[in-house]
Automatic annotation (TrEMBL):
Organism: Thyridium curvatum
Family that this chain belongs to: Belongs to the peptidase C14B family.
GO molecular function: cysteine-type endopeptidase activity
Descriptive protein name: Uncharacterized protein
Record's GO cellular component terms: cytoplasm
Gene Ontology terms: biological process: proteolysis
InterPro entries: Metacaspase (IPR050452)
Gene3D superfamilies attached to this UniProt entry: 3.40.50.1460
Origin superkingdom: Eukaryota
Length: 686
């Protein structure tokens, strides 16, 4: 009888404090980060758990760490530890790497380097003394990540270091060391790159079953890992003394707090990210000069360290804000995400699994809808939970008023009419019209066909889906209506455009350019509507389609033209496929594009560039895709816009409605750019 191998869990926890100097205060919260994480892991009673901690603490009268030498986080010890894990892990195992300490940015040197920001390098020890340092380059970490993912090992990485976070709360100590070329030169190979392990580097692309592919600068398949950083690639980080007297990195502190709320380590990465991001954003709301925007890279649906925990039904973060004598709820989604005034949201506590059959959630209505946030007010609280709502709770959209802009004409035979009419009434987000009505427009039609099936066609009479209603149960009918709502939601996302004409919006739109062009063609394709020359418009004109073949490679280029160095653009790229799916292409919570600048000894160009290709499915001769790009001045989340292929499951999404600006918050500016692409198979001999 074949035995089933149990998964093995490997945790590599690295914390490097630094002593005080005459010029600055040292780090003292990095080792506590590791010790607390270790304690949390041990409390989980995980079978097959192996923890390797590499830590360094310093006392004023000693230059060497107080820990035994075998625990020092030296360059060699870290390599040895990672190599050992690569050798010992097998398919189905899990690896968790946590780094807390100093880091820096180094000039881009590799083909996969982030040329728009520079590359991260972790600052580790190179000997027994605190001032004997060496850079552990991110590309070296990526090589180990690639080796693990190729072995079908699931990897979770947390980086609580410089250029992945900063916050202000009580006392702070910077987690950044300026880049030192002399230090790096000691260990660079002759071509100017850091020595890599035996694994070879290769360019990796995101490849879906049929979606466009975006060339990513990772070595590993992003489905196999998740990386949580405490900030974006342009921000410094701080060790912080919190109100309870403890010193921790900001990300580590709120991650530990989240594990307390979830009753242990684990949980869905996107929900952890949404929760922790809201907590960090709230903590630095009145310290806008100290930016901190956590990022999530890779597989957003992956479990933290492979450990399941009760999860909320929500996917949008909520912040509780005190305003004079009362408090208000702020939803981390607005017009850019498709929120409309009057939309209803169910609000759930983070870390607690609640379904409608188990408990009644708090229901809140969107009132003031701004660019990327909205105000909520509670309208239903049967369970009495509203008084407990706090920052980091998660919301889920329940109704979506703007789906009414995509009406559906329906026609049934008398034997089905009563049954279907009752089902339609359970979908208040949709606008249903009788097929004999004189509605001005009809984007979709739901009609009974001659063979007894129900068909859905678009406003050009093209068949989208058919459904056999013979002996259909109530559940079957609801699933079919969910597909129709899915179609309307797709159209709404496709058409999302910021039509505001105020000065702030126009200035933001003029602060960047987005182009798509063939590799050897200097003339870029035009986005938006060619007839109106509005590059931000989304139209359906046949003349506004870009024609490509699967063999073509095009270049996406985003330029941040801001004159102020601190003005960044946050970029979100979505592929809207012919299977009615919407997928985020960079496999991250967003890409930051800083303005052109010279810092730390090297220049950032102010541009982001990636190659794209548009494949066809087997047997498919042509199809039309949409590349939808959102840009914001502040980080946000567009998770609620994503859709699977039609029929895989039944989410519903919403469209936007403009609201006013609220000066208490940071910039709510947003814009979108739409490229419609028709891909045609190149015929042999043509």
């Amino acid at each position: 009888m074949e035995t089933i191998r149990r998964a093995v869990y490997h945790a590599i926890l690295i914390g490097i404090n630094s002593p005080d100097t005459e010029d600055e205060r040292g780090l003292s919260g990095c080792v506590p980060d590791v010790l607390e994480i270790t304690k949390k892991l041990e409390q989980c009673s995980i079978d097959g758990l192996h923890i390797q901690s590499l830590i360094a603490s310093f006392q004023p009268d000693r230059r060497e760490p107080i820990e035994p030498a075998q625990l020092w986080p030296t360059y060699d010890n870290i390599h040895s530890c990672l190599s050992k894990v690569v050798r010992e892990t097998q398919a189905g195992d899990f690896v968790y790497i946590h780094f807390s300490g100093h880091s820096t940015l180094v000039p881009p040197r590799y083909p996969q380097s982030n040329r728009h920001t520079g590359d991260l390098a972790l600052v580790v020890l190179d000997g027994p003394a605190a001032d004997e340092l060496r850079y552990f380059h991110s590309m070296q970490l990526a090589e180990y990540l690639k080796a693990l993912v190729q072995q079908q090992v699931r990897v979770t990485i947390v980086l609580d270091c410089c250029y992945s976070g900063s916050t202000l709360r009580h006392e702070e100590v910077i987690r950044y060391l300026p880049y030192c070329p002399e230090l790096d030169k000691k260990h660079l190979s002759t071509d100017g790159t850091a020595p890599l392990g035996p694994m070879t580097s290769e360019q990796s692309s995101l490849r879906g079953p049929r979606l466009p592919t975006l060339e990513l600068n990772w070595l590993a398949d992003p489905d196999g890992f998740a990386i949580l950083t405490s900030s974006d690639a342009t921000e410094r980080a701080y060790g912080v003394k919190f109100g309870d007297g403890s010193r921790h990195g900001t990300l580590s502190y709120y991650l530990l707090e989240a594990f307390d709320e979830a009753d242990g380590v684990g949980g869905n990465m996107i929900q952890l990210f949404q929760h922790v991001s809201a907590k960090i954003a709230d903590s630095r709301r009145y310290h806008k000069s100290k930016k901190q925007n956590p990022m999530l890279i890779g597989n957003k649906e992956q479990l933290f360290f492979g450990l399941p925990k009760p999860s909320s039904l929500g996917n949008i973060a909520v912040t509780k804000v005190a305003v004079e004598t009362y408090s208000m709820l702020r939803l981390h989604a607005g017009a850019a995400q498709g929120v409309a005034v009057g939309d209803l949201f169910a609000i759930y506590k983070f870390g607690r699994s609640i379904s409608p059959t188990e408990a009644t959630p708090v229901i809140a209505e969107a009132s003031n809808v701004r660019g990327i946030t909205s105000s909520l007010h509670v309208i239903e609280d049967t369970g009495g939970l509203s008084k407990n709502i706090d920052t980091g709770w998660l919301a889920r959209a329940v109704t979506r008023h703007n789906l009414h802009q995509y009406p559906v004409k329906v026609g049934f035979s008398p034997e089905y009419r009563a049954e279907w009419q009752e089902a339609l009434q359970s979908r208040p987000s949709m606008s249903w019209h009788d097929h004999n009505s004189e509605a001005d427009t009809d984007y979709l039609r739901l009609e009974e066909t001659d063979d007894g099936t129900m068909s859905v066609t678009d406003n050009q009479d093209r068949l989208i889906v058919k459904y056999d209603v013979t002996d259909a149960s109530e559940r079957d009918i609801q699933q079919f209506l969910s597909r129709i709502q899915h179609l309307a939601s797709f159209m709404l996302v496709r058409d999302l455009v910021n039509h505001d004409t105020d000065i702030g919006t126009q200035q933001f739109k003029s602060s960047f350019t987005v182009t798509l062009s063939k590799e050897d063609d200097e003339v870029p394709f035009k986005s938006g509507c060619h007839k109106t020359s509005d590059v931000h418009d989304a139209c359906a004109h046949p003349d506004c389609v870009i024609h490509l073949t699967p063999a073509d490679t095009v270049k996406l280029k985003v330029e941040n033209k801001a004159q102020k160095k601190e003005e960044k653009v946050f970029l979100y790229v979505f592929a809207m496929g012919s299977g009615w799916e919407i997928t985020e292409m960079t496999r991250s919570s967003g890409v930051v594009v800083p303005a052109a600048d010279t810092r730390d000894g090297f220049a950032t160009p102010g541009t982001y560039q990636r190659g794209m290709r548009f494949p066809l499915e087997n047997g498919q001769e042509e199809c039309e895709e949409v590349v939808k790009i959102f840009l914001t001045r502040q980080p946000t989340s567009f998770t609620m816009l994503e859709l699977p292929r039609l029929g895989e499951y039944n989410p519903v999404r919403v469209r936007a409605e403009s609201g006013y600006r609220l000066s208490a918050w940071e910039s709510e500016d947003w814009a979108s750019v739409t490229f419609r692409v028709r891909i045609t198979e190149l015929k042999t001999g043509s």
